[in-house]
Amino acid sequence: MPLLSFHKVTKYYGAQCVLQGISWGIDPGQHVGLIGSNGTGKTTMLQLITGDLSPDEGEISRRRDLRTGYLTQDAHLTATNSVLDEALSSFERIHALEKQLREAEAALEKAKGDAEETERRLGQYGRLTEAFEQAGGYTYAHRAKTVLHGLGFKEEDLPLPVNVLSGGQKTRLRLGKLLLGDADLLLLDEPESHLDVAATEWLEEYITDHPAAILLVSHDRYFLDRTVNRIAELEDLGLQNFPGNYTRAMEVKAERLKSQQRAYDQQQAFIKEREEFIRRTIEGVKTKQAQGRRSHLARLNRLEKPRTKHRSASLNFGAMRRSGRDVLALDNVSKSYGTRTLFSELHFTQHLGDRVGLIGYNGAGKTTLLRMIVGQETPSSGTIRLGTGVDIGYYDQERASLTGERSVLNELWSVRPGMNEGTVRNLLGRFLFRGDDVFKQVNLLSGGEQGRLALAKLILEEPNFLVLDEPTNHLDILSRQALEQALADYPGTLMVASHDRYFLDQMVSALLIFEQDGVRHWEGTYSEYRAFNEEQRLAAVRAKEKKPRRRAGAAGDGAGTAGGSAAGTAYDPRKKERREQRMMAEALEAAIRKKEAEIARLEGDLGEEGTFSDREQVERVGSAYMRARQELEDLYLEWEVVAMELED
Fold first, then answer.
1. Are 455 and 315 in contact (CB under 8 A)?
2. Are strands 355-360 and 510-515 parallel, antiparallel or unpaired?
3. pTM
4. Where are the domains of the chain?
5. Nearest Cα to 458, choosing from 431, 478, 433?
6. What is the DSSP string of 264-322?
7. What CATH topology corresponds to 326-525?
8. pLDDT tens digits, 192-232
9. What is the SS3 assignment for 327-346?
10. Which class would CATH give 572-647?
């Protein structure tokens, strides 16, 4: 049974229709990505689901006991709570059970001396204990800390009062509370927007394993590929469903469009043939046949021509001056603010045509480095040199290059005052500014519109070294694809800081990775970097479990070796490899049995009254239990790898 269903739902804002005839639903456990261009009604859909808006036509059915969690900026936080206590407040059911257990313990104490009452109270206490355990009562504090750490909170942040947090931190805390709650349906509107790459990757894994149904609004295609199993796309007032993640859904959409185009072309050919027959025979001996075919054509249900192309920004870099081979040289560069050092001893050279991406945690210094390269800040030490003939074009997150009081038309015109109005309007049209849009005041534009305008100015300047700081922020998927297409044809040099990993995979072939202990250079794409990290993690698991092995009789057993040679047995390196794999599999199986026994012991400890009555002990044992469970999963993963190698 669906958690909720839309039945021919239509919604207006005044006279403007934003959704029309939507029939759609979401089932328990489904993870659905809701996509669409800006302004197509994604937020309206979420508000219809929560009941904050009502449909003008049609109806929405909800399961009677449906619990919905919605991430909003105004969700209540208790200012005086610590970060940890605020996260723990999500476990309302566990807190209620904990209170009942305390009361049951007190009742047991009072019942001493009354055998019948004691037995009854013990039964009640046992049932409550079982319910508390099933609800995760022994591990909820550890779960809360795990989620907070995953979302970027450090251990020293957990005691901080909520009222000292930044806006972004409060949003992450609201997201953490939502993930820890017990909602049947989670509505997540761009949850990755305030996260760095590490926290986003953690969130991907957490959402993937989350048992609740999730409706996820996002423009991050990489994120959608790793978190959802269906796509719902809003387009032309309607909604289309596709199976699979974003990449698979777009493949299915392309197949559907091809099929629709074939059907349309076949019908058009049929109509043309019939009309030609009618034209030739309407006055002749076959008049009745012609009239019959005309009547048939009049009744024909004509197919609409499929929309195979969407209105999107058509970006095009014109001719530009060629720079020298060495475009940028960073020599022993460092940057500090007071006692805080962002990075130090940074050496890096970028050559003509190189495409470099900057990634890392928020606050690591990516934007600062870009600002130093374009001359808006100075390094604390070291030198930054630009090569011969380098013309920089800089796109900053705040879009400082825009003048708020100007119209869109005059803002673009200011780059080249000598251009005629028609040429300026044509360029703006390629960036989706049409008709009266060009007379809008810049400071009244949305974030995405300002981003498109800033990019249009940058294109018109024709720089040969593009320095971009989060250029896809506030852009919908179609606008991101248009930017990628333009940059794919860009002949100059590119440096871009971005959290959009899909964009980075398309655009760059090298990375500067900002980490706690410095800046690392990686030659390759983001996906290759992530795959390398995963290989390193698996190698660490192997090294942890692998013990030195020595074949019995190998040392000093010359006779055995000679005997083998005397028998004429050829050396087969695959035999040794298979033997080592079997030994590895046996070692892993032994380690799995040992870890399972450890988990069983910890489960027993969690049920002990001495543990239960001591909160610190519960946290310690609970943490050990969760750690052991993760280690067991890692062991099983490693065992599966070795088992597959043996099968091959």
1. yes
2. parallel
3. 0.73
4. 250-299, 326-525, 572-647
5. 431
6. HHHHHHHHHHHHHHHHHHTTSTTHHHHHHHHHHHHH--PPPPP--S-----------PP
7. Rossmann fold (3.40.50)
8. 887 888 889 899 999 998 999 999 999 999 999 999 999 99
9. EEEEEEEEEEECCEEEEEEE
10. mainly alpha
